[in-house]
TrEMBL record:
HAMAP family: GTPase_Der (MF_00195). NCBIfam families: GTPase_EngA, small_GTP. Gene3D superfamilies: 3.30.300.20, P-loop containing nucleotide triphosphate hydrolases (3.40.50.300). One of its GO terms (biological process) is ribosome biogenesis. Signal peptide: none annotated. It comes from Denitrobaculum tricleocarpae. It comes from the Bacteria. Residues 3-167, 198-373 form the EngA-type G domain. Pfam families: KH_dom-like, MMR_HSR1. InterPro entries: G_ENGA, GTP-bd, GTPase_Der, KH_dom-like, KH_dom-like_a/b, P-loop_NTPase, Small_GTP-bd. This is GTPase Der. The gene is der. The keyword Repeat applies.
Amino acid sequence: MDFKVAIIGRPNVGKSTLFNRLVGKRLALVDDQPGVTRDRREGTAKLYDLTFTVIDTAGLEEAFDNSLEARMRVQTEQAVDEADLAFLVVDSRAGITPLDEHFAQWLRKSPTPVFVLANKCEGRQGDSGFMDAYRLGLGEPVPISAEHGLGMTDLYDFVDEQMKRQQEERAAVQGMLAEDAATDGEETDEEEIDNRPLQLAIVGRPNVGKSTLINRLIGEDRLLTGPEAGITRDSIGVEWTYKDRAIKLFDTAGIRKRARVQSKVEKLSVADSLRAVKFAQVVVLVLDAEAALEKQDLTIARLVEEEGRALVIAVNKWDACRNRDEVIQDLRDRLERSLPQLTGVPVATISALRGQNLNNMLDRVLDAYKVWNKRVSTSALNRWLEAVTSAHPPPAPGGRRIRLKYMTQAKTRPPTFAIFCTKADDLPLSYGRYLENTLRADFDLYGTPIRLNFKKGDNPYAKDGR
């Protein structure tokens, strides 16, 4: 079992900066504007020789209605409940505020151990705020600077102590379980665990239901949702299992047209979403059934193809859709016209809110992943190459026909093929598309990008000067 540390505190005290410092990467968005973080984000922290899971949370707000701030507070409370240790971060330069005191009182009632971190203590400007943190009643605060990396050794000592205590408790429990198993005379075989989960990114325009979809899949309100567009800002990864297959779901911020993206935070959010696509293996493009496959949707789909990722299209809000046959036909026509490089991309109609047809979508995701990893034997490829060139011979620029001599698959993920031929530079794009479409149809490579590389064969007589 993993050791988890939750970073909590009011807005703009440096929680995301500390999160980035611990994981060693700029995963969480950081800006001077308060309230940038909304969903809780998990990452693998490395503090000297310690490795644990750290959770970045939204800034605590004293809101208890159905507002966005209240839903963010609920997410933070869930993070604290799941954690083995909590860091309460305060701003030593601003001093202790009534909001800090309010949430310190709440944390004193929580069974999760709490460690107070007085952030922004570089220089002398934070001395008074650091001393003021004693009155929170949560033990001795530790002065740190998340931005400059000060105070990390003190964090190490406290985390190390808590981890050792947890290990001792778990060792005792495991010893009791082992005794029970021995008395029962039962043997258990450990199955091999796949440590590399399928990386699945959920992308789309704002407010099409991406976070709702993930919440429905995992069976809990893990991500913030609501009628407000643009709630999600960070690309949040959630580990999950479907049909014994480990999957890591990535919820991403809605991607709008570049001209409409004005604020710095939204620019960072979109860049984070694009990075999630680059690291994904399969991408689910979520569409709104009432406005399926708009220009921006096609732009996102082309980006997925250019990055070489398998694609599945999920048409959401299908339960509220009218003229379903017309919508599906229009969607397929637009895909064929505007996205021929992904002919046959799988389409699933779903309702994330009601949980309808989600298994069908996930089965298509697993199928797309298999196609993305598919390998075709060299002998089969060369038999195919001979057949297609006989049926439709290559052109003959300058009176000499181009010869396609040999073909092999260079790699998978996505399927990439090398064709050795004469006059590779003179081969028309139209003939390359013919080969790609026929290859896709004959070897069932639908829904994934295909890469065809035409290489000029070496002249064996060139060195002899003939």
